[in-house]
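Duplicate of #3305? Posting structure anyway:
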């Protein structure tokens, strides 16, 4: 379906990376591993727990957790703990148990968020593992600029960008959302591969798996298509 590992990044925070990761995992070829290199800003279950709640039958791996909701490098420094470097993430991916058909890696924040004090990013990991990138982005006003910049950086690094996915599609889309269906792939140069319904994370496991097929395009195992 797609090369592994697949790196799910975004245009920033709160754009739906975790729910997009869960939807892709729900439709991906099993067995599936979901890796969250760094979890920041939570003392609770975090993103891995959310993926498990929504999907269930996947293995999740979290390398580090820092309490402050900041960039990984900053959160590690304030916590007085060592950062999770791109080199460590590459090693951990290489040491995953054999047999996974799909490996999804969910980033923190956007593509240029630093993971260590040398400025290492998730794209450094993708570059060293020959990974492919999927970009979660907002569906409304402002997404054209932020998403185009994100995709441009991915491509500048010589990486393959599989496409973009709207992390939340409103029940009553406005003019901006409807226009962005057409304008976003034209401006970014990569396909729009889905649109998750707003409050998608509110579904139970069975309902989420069923609906994910309608939210994601055939490239990601679903049936969604950009409305003509």
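Output from current build:
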């Amino acid at each position: 379906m797609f090369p592994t590992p697949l790196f799910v990044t975004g245009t920033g925070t709160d754009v739906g990376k975790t729910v997009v990761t869960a939807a892709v995992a729900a439709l991906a070829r099993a067995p599936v591993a979901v890796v969250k290199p760094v979890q920041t800003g939570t003392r609770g279950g975090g993103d891995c727990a959310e993926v498990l709640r929504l999907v269930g039958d996947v293995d999740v791996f979290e390398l580090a957790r820092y309490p402050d909701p900041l960039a990984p490098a900053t959160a590690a420094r304030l916590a007085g703990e060592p950062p999770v470097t791109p080199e460590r993430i590459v090693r951990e991916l290489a040491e995953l148990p054999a047999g996974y058909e799909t490996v999804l890696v969910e980033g923190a924040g956007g593509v240029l968020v630093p993971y260590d004090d040398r400025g290492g990013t998730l794209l450094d990991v993708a570059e060293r593992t020959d990974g492919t990138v999927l970009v979660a982005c907002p569906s409304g006003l402002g997404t054209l600029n932020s998403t185009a910049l994100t995709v441009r950086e991915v491509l500048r690094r010589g990486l393959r960008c599989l496409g973009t996915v709207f992390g939340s599609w409103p029940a009553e889309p406005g003019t901006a959302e409807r226009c962005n269906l057409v304008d976003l792939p034209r401006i970014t140069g990569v396909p729009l591969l889905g649109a998750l319904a707003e409050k998608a994370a509110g579904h139970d496991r069975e309902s989420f798996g069923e609906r994910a097929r309608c939210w994601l395009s055939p490239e990601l195992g679903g049936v969604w298509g950009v409305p003509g």
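Confirmed duplicate; merging threads. Strands lie at 6-10, 32-40, 59-66, 102-110, 132-137, 160-169, 192-197. The first strand starts at residue 6 and ends at 10.
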